[in-house]
Specification:
The longest helix has 20 residues, at about 380-400. The protein is of the alpha+beta class. It is built from 15 helices and 17 strands. It has helices at about 20-35, 40-55, 65-75, 95-100, 120-125, 145-155, 205-215, 240-250, 250-270, 305-315, 335-345, 355-375, 380-400, 430-440, 455-465; strands at about 60, 85, 105-110, 130-135, 160, 170, 175, 180-185, 200-205, 275-280, 285, 295, 320, 345-350, 405-410, 410-420, 475.
């Protein structure tokens, strides 16, 4: 059951990591001792354990997921004149790295339920210039890979997973990061596993791995000091960052389970709200719910930014689901209806590891409140409805009889609601009961105060005589 809405004093943030003594210990050790002969100890261990966790043969720590994807494309020999199919709903890096190498990103639509790459849309976009597909496991839900594997085999295409958001997610029991020719993860500070900034390139092909290492380290000639054989890139991760990443990887299952728990709290409270759609999980998938998110239906008349502004007024942080890439000025407009609906109506909710069930309770109560207050209704209809409600409430407030509203379960009365009327103002028993209730439930009020009988009487007068749109009830069992 949702608790009463009270406005909290601090902003509930959208994201945030979980840092324990293990992370602090590893990072401190790397900072003190991780130099000279130990300059890469944590990097090598991080790569080894992260690769083992995902099931990939080779792992290369990088300065970002963007860098990892860039290196994968370079190592696969994709370049000018080639096309790479990218989903509309993703962070711009997925398309930007295609531009880096002189190729052309081609935007496909997304699945309406999972918000991931739609295989039918991919199939319709393949041309003689298509060289690769870049599925994105959006917000922790894996793509449907079998149709993509089939397309890749039929058209001789490469698959590079943008697995940035999906550590621990699974497709038919196989972890993301091991589902294509190469994969890239992100450890940016909002992710499930963090290093502050950083990424990881994964693959099973030894030649591809060695070529990625070569181009990711400025194309050094390791047989000749400070001699370079080609124009390469500086995409290394530091030993200190890797120490943090190693500790996080060793806690990965706990971190993922907390993400899943946070989503379940949202699902329990919002699943019956027909005006929104939450993240899903297909039968063949394990979704890690990196971000608990919702998409506003067209029944909600305000736009996404207005809804987010309403949340912010109630100290609830949020962020938009990714805009459709083709809506950006540097790309040509395409017609992908699912992507434009999700990309214009989707909102990420607070999903950081430190979120509590009480906070989710608070957030959901306000989401419901905003939706209820913002349903479309004409001014004339609203005024008429308001007058009718005010008239009914006013009648009840003035009614000093034993007017009650029955509470029944399977046709049997189990209690009743008794309106608090004008007679309650001078009823000492009623006043004492309300004083006790206010004293014991101060966390539901926006400010804290000393509770007295006189203060309660004044509060009751204000509610009964000045608040036209509300009425208080006593909830009673059959014994009163």
């Amino acid at each position: 059951m949702l608790k009463k809405q009270n406005i909290i004093n601090e902003l509930i943030l959208t994201a945030g990591p979980s840092i324990t003594d293990r992370e602090v210990s590893y990072v401190l050790d790397a900072a003190k001792n991780g130099w000279n002969n130990q300059h890469s100890d944590y990097i090598r261990q991080f790569e080894k354990e992260f690769g083992a966790y995902t099931g990939a043969k080779h792992a290369m720590a990088t300065s970002s997921c963007t860098g990892a994807m860039h290196l994968a494309l370079v190592a696969l020999g994709i370049g000018k004149g080639d096309e790479v199919i990218v989903p509309e709903i993703t962070w711009i890096a997925t398309a930007a790295v295609v531009e880096y190498i002189g190729a052309t990103p081609v935007f496909c639509d997304v699945d309406a339920d999972t918000w991931t790459m739609n295989p039918e849309s991919v199939a319709s976009l393949i041309t003689e210039n298509t060289r690769a597909i870049m599925p994105v496991h959006t917000y922790g839900h894996p793509c449907d890979m079998q149709p993509l594997w089939d397309l890749a085999k039929k058209h001789d295409l490469k698959i590079i997973e943008d697995a940035a958001q999906s550590i621990g997610a699974e497709y038919k029991g196989q972890k993301t990061g091991s589902l294509g020719d190469a994969a890239a993860f992100s450890f940016q500070g909002a992710k499930a596993v963090v290093t502050g900034e950083g990424g990881m390139l994964l693959c099973n092909n030894t030649a591809l791995y060695e070529k990625s290492l070569f181009y990711g380290d400025q194309c050094r000639d390791h047989n000749k000091a400070l001699f370079n054989l080609d124009i390469g890139y500086k995409y290394k991760m530091s030993n200190v960052q890797a120490a943090l990443g190693l500790a996080q990887t060793q806690r990965a299952n706990d971190l993922i389970n907390k993400k899943i728990q946070i989503f379940k709290w949202y699902q329990q409270r919002l699943a019956d709200v027909e005006e929104i759609t939450l993240n899903t999980e297909k039968s063949w998938a394990k979704n890690i719910y990196w971000m608990s998110s919702m998409v506003l239906s067209n029944k909600v008349k305000q736009d996404r930014l207005e809804f987010m502004a309403e949340l912010k007024q109630r100290n609830i942080d949020s962020r938009p689901i990714f805009y459709p890439l083709s809506s950006f000025p540097m790309f040509n407009t395409t017609d992908n209806p699912n992507a434009y609906h999700v990309g214009n109506r989707g909102i990420n909710l607070p999903s950081g590891h430190n979120r509590t069930e009480e906070e989710v309770d608070y957030i959901c109560s306000h989401i419901k409140d905003i939706i209820a207050n913002k349903k479309a209704i004409s001014i004339k209809g609203w005024l008429q409805y308001r007058e009718e409600v005010h008239a009914k409430i006013s009648t009840l407030k003035q009614d000093n009889s034993d007017n009650i509203i029955s509470i029944a379960d399977n046709g049997k009365q189990i209690g009743y609601l008794k309106p608090i009327t004008q007679s309650s103002i001078n009823n000492n028993a009623h006043l004492q009961l309300l004083t006790t209730w206010r004293s014991e439930n101060q966390e539901y009020f926006s400010t804290q105060f000393k509770v007295t009988n006189e203060g309660t009487k004044l509060w009751l007068v204000n509610l009964l005589e000045q608040a036209k749109d509300r009425l208080l009830f006593f909830v009673c069992n059959n014994d009163g």
